[in-house]
Amino acid sequence: MRLNGTEQSLARWRLIGLATALIVLFVDQMSKEWVLYWLDLPLRRTMPVVPCLNFTMVWNYAVTFGMFGGHGRWLFIVISLLAVLGLLVVLVRSRRRLVSLSCGGIIGGAIGNVIDRLRYGAVVDFLHFHIGDWSWYVFNIADSAIVCGVGLWLLDSFLAERRSRHG
Q1: How does the average pLDDT of the chain come out, rounded?
Q2: Phi then psi for 123, rounded to 5 degrees?
């Protein structure tokens, strides 16, 4: 059975989505290994990188932005894995490029944080942006991929809505 041009393009974007998930997962886990074992960040606690960025060790026992205070570790793991399964279904069925790419980023990030919870009982966060007295939450590569994936998905939804309204 041969795929037509559109189906081949969609299949390619699904593979790109899966590759994105694997790349995000690999970069996330390697960055955490690096800060934990090469930089020894748990011992150093914080390390200036550039004037607006520190590597600051935070063991996040909670969910996004510290919500829920770390109660129900296994519940978070199960919910994350169910979300990954749902996103895999969306990825396989997707007919839109940005949705495929978005799913890949979110899947890779979610799996990266699940691995942390399984290995360490908490998520390894270390990226700390700040300017003067203003400071952002400490986060990691997986968190960034999830946020960017959600942002791309929202952008795709907005663009799809505009296309449907304007023919």
Answers
A1: 90
A2: -90, 140
